[in-house]
Amino acid sequence: MMARERLGIYGERMSEAGDPTGRGEAPFGVLVVEDEEIAAKAHASYVDRVDGFRLVGIARNAQHALAALTDRIIGIDAGQVDLVLLDMNLPDGHGLMLVRSLRARKVPVDVIAVTAARDMQVVQEALSLGVVHYILKPFTFPVFKTKLEAFRSFRLSLGAEQGGNGQITQSQVDAAVEGLRAGTGPQRAKGVPDAVQDQILGLLADEGHSAAEAADRIGVSRVTARRYLEAMADVGLLERRPRYGSAGRPVLEYVAIA
């Protein structure tokens, strides 16, 4: 099967395997770079849950990641990696050092930082090196999904809009960048104040609550609490699940999607 090409964030050619979906859009290959085992598995699982993406591999440190992205790891094809989900605090060096090495070697991959590092100087330098998104830990799956979908839309729009000479217009560039910016904010439920959504997400992060229990904790009526919880569940921030007791009908409870 012949490989196709698509453009990276800097316009570099990126080889792409044939489309397994038959829709003309091959999934983006993702390398997760994370030293904590639980976090690495969680991020890998998240990748598999987002349409249009597939996990290529997991690297546990900067050296391993660099080797994987330069075809020095058996079992990982560097040409199949389009996106790196990069933790900044790695045991053998800072994530920015890895990004600099990738840029110096002209490795054609895009990078999304997935990290707890909140230093503004680090954020600014990451963006200056072409890191396309910056996801702060802890985060929920809907936030992660929004970022990846915005990245995918951005990349596909660049590939779709270019003409036969590989050039695009200013309006096409503006539309592509605007699509990328659409993923900068977390998913929000309409009709629920942001402060209340944050309060509910914090409350339901570790254990589920029924509407009545949540109402008592956040100080609203049961009817209002149920309306808030249902709105947040509809946009994927919360999961509904039954809680079975010793007798009677199960109680519907809500839990934050990690």
UniProtKB/TrEMBL annotation:
Domain Response regulatory span(s) in chain numbering: 29-152
One GO MF term: DNA binding
Keywords, ordered alphabetically: Activator, Cytoplasm, DNA-binding, Phosphoprotein, Transcription, Transcription regulation, Two-component regulatory system
SMART domains, alphabetized: REC
One GO cellular component term noted in the UniProt record for this chain: cytoplasm
Keyword Phosphoprotein in record: yes
Positions of modified residues (4-aspartylphosphate): 87
Tree of life domain: Bacteria
Major localization listed first in the record, in broad terms: cytoplasm
Subcellular location: Cytoplasm
Pfam families hit by this protein: HTH_20, Response_reg
Entry keyword Lyase: no
Protein name per UniProt: Transcriptional regulatory protein
Source organism of the structure: Brevibacterium yomogidense
